HTH gntR-type domain-containing protein (Enterococcus hermanniensis), 457 residues
Amino acid sequence: MEQIIGYIQAGTLQPGDHLPAERKLADFYQVNRSTVVHALDELVSLGWVIRMQGSGTLINEGNWGRSTMPRVDWRSFFTQDSSRKDPYAEKLQQLLPDPTAVDFYSGELPLSLIPDFRFPSYTWEELLLEERKQGALGYQPLQQVICERIKREQKIEVSSEQVLITSGAQQAMFLLLQVMLQSGDSVAIEDPSFLYSLPIFASAGIKLYGVELDNQGMRIDKLEQLILTKKIKLIIINPTFQNPTGTTMSEKRRLELIALSQKYQIPIVEDEVFSELNFQIVPASLKELAPHQVIHLGSLSKIFGSSIKIGWIIADQDLIQRLSEAKQMMDFSISVFPQVIAYTALKDPQFEAHQKKLVQTLRERATDFEEQAKCIAADWEISTICGGMYVYLKWKHQKLTRKDWDVFIKQKVLIAPSFLFSSDTMAMRINYTRMDQQNQQLFFERLQKISTELRRK
Ligand SMILES: Cc1ncc(COP(=O)(O)O)c(C=O)c1O
């Protein structure tokens, strides 16, 4: 199909030209005749060729009805429901509105902690004027403010031409897959990782391989083994307060990772959506350590909630240019509205104070959790919380199966079991930021009951 489209585009095949008979094509490509029929059917449905009774297959006369390749409908992959296909995740989803359930599963801050801003009212005309500041890479004032923040928070010096605004970090990742990889390519991620069950990889035909983590982050020796056995084209990593384990990669590991990626010439995508929710100083970002080797992703979802859907990619200018072209081709354009809202919130004089207060509250919630969690320490190994949103609890006793986790559903304690992130069935992710005085007590009471039941199994 690609070759025929290529010949038409290059003019080698002209409108009205006949394609060879199916049998001849099958001989030529050394494929089964039914494969040829299938490819021609696709070309007909895409409008490149037409079938005429009695005169075979001809090149279509014009552009009407033509499209290039059958593309997946990406929008369906970002809808709330389609990204939660696992039956357990579906059950969780159904329980979310239940007021008697306690939700430590959702991946965002509770509403009470999301900074509240008053937005200035815009007239229609003023908004249209703002629209003029929208370039191919996004709303320019927002790009600018992201550059300033990145420089201040992460010591990364970038210009606006290196920042592409996207509709969230997930869309950023999808764009990168489309531009940098081909169907059948392999990508290394952490094991466990929230990327494990995202449909964007499967839909693009990308194979995911997991690399074991320890308390310093991804094991570089294991990564090298993987690179040597599978043809890894890209490494995607969430180095700071990793989702789901909360682990932060040490500086030593970061340097080793960069050295490895340079040795094998494999680019790294650094997903840094949690780095601002830090109670302690975090190691330098990978982008700071190796500006040209690393593509940096950020998002506002973890501060403002996922409905804002604003994210960004920071990379070298030529890659940003390609990504921007792909974005336009796929009609990924983002309206100026959420961008103006994001800009206003980030520029609000109260923003820094809100942010400080938020981090302080998270620190208190983390300390409180760790203190209360002593009552379950005989059954669960608990990760240390240094920032971010998640704490990871590992069951200390017998092997658990997927089915054992139904007891959480029965008790209406909503958590994310590790099988949503890996093939492992022994641990769970808890969003501790959602724990206030009220639901914390409920959580530990119910968890103690659950643990007793699990021990009996
Ligand atoms: C580590 C990580 N990266 C990216 C995303 C997606 O972010 P966005 O909502 O901006 O698409 C999430 C959301 O859960 C996440 O946990």
About this structure: The pocket of pyridoxal-5'-phosphate is lined by residues 107, 168-170, 194, 238, 243, 271, 273, 299, 301, 306, 311 (CB under 6 Å). Residues 2-59 form a domain with the Arc Repressor Mutant, subunit A fold (CATH 1.10.10.10). The first strand starts at residue 49 and ends at 52.
